[in-house]
Amino acid sequence: MTAGLIVLIVLIVFLFIVAASGVRIVPQARAGIVERLGRYSRTLDPGLTLIVPFIDRVKPLIDLREQVVSFPPQPVITEDNLVVGIDTVIYFTVTDARAATYEVANPLQAIEQLTVTTLRNVIGGMTLEETLTSRDSVNSQLRAVLDEATGRWGIRVGRVELKSVEPPRTVQEAMEKQMRAERDRRATILTAEGVKQSQILTAEGEKQSAVLRAEGARTAAILKAEGEAKAIETVFNAIHEGAPDQALLQYQYLQTLPQLAQGDANKIWIIPSEFTSAVSSLTEQFAGATKPKKPAGATSMDEIDERARKDAEDAARAAAAATEEAESATNAGVGTPPAPREIPPPPPAPAA
């Protein structure tokens, strides 16, 4: 192998290396900055591109996708002088690779510091309660300020979120107590409402029960009155249909006298003057010598007359005994005698 051939091979290899170094492949969603002799030349788009070896230099590729950066908690003082720790999350996208390369040295650090200062300005004009309940408003204000400041850096801030807001420990304990008190209050209100509804339902039930009992009692009283009226009407009709004579009425009168003597309080009787005449008239009617002859088959009526005569004699004896007892009690004069009990007069004797 001659020296000329070796030189040719070396030259070919060198040219191949030089040509290969002039070829660049840029992935999708990436951008490359080309500097020619130290000055910005152009921005490489995704795909295959050629550069001049040894003259053009490609800086590190820049990611054009949306990026998420979470910053550590930052102490912020609220309007009511409370120190809270706030975590923030920022979503940003590089829109201009040239500005992001040459306008700011460290984009992430710049965004972090700008976020902290903007957050302190926004939260400093709000109370703790507004900070906890107005996160959307805080996010909108932060995004507007950051987007305006980072626009000249070739960066667009898409979203700013407050990941967490941590108040001081004493404030957290007070908030927990407040929440417990609110839950207890709601539970008490719900319990009272339940008791109220229960009492209302119980009262309604008792009302309906009382109405039903009253209606039942009214119906029972009506039926009882109707029954008694029917019974009185039946007895009245039976008496008028039986056509009782004067002797039967006097007999019933004498049968009632022993019942009046019953009881411990019955000590004094006032016997009407008609009692003797009633007894005499009844005795004459049932035991008179001039009795009509009973037809055959009247044995049962004879027995009834005999029993009536015996009852009249028993009533007369009971009345005499009661009279003697009353007289003896009056003569003894012990204590205050009870009110005299008057016996109704017997029915008038039948006409001769």
UniProtKB/TrEMBL annotation:
It is a single-pass membrane protein. InterPro entries: Band7/mec-2_domain, Band_7, Band_7/SPFH_dom_sf, Band_7/stomatin-like_CS, Stomatin_HflK_fam. Belongs to the band 7/mec-2 family. Keywords: Membrane, Transmembrane, Transmembrane helix. Residues 337-352 have a biased composition (Pro residues). It comes from the Bacteria. Residues 286-352 are annotated as: Disordered. PANTHER family: STOMATIN-LIKE PROTEIN 2, MITOCHONDRIAL. One of its GO terms (cellular component) is side of membrane. This is SPFH domain-containing protein. Residues 287-299 have a biased composition (Low complexity). The lineage of its organism: Bacteria, Bacillati, Actinomycetota, Thermoleophilia, Solirubrobacterales. CDD domains: SPFH_paraslipin. Residues 21-179 form the Band domain.
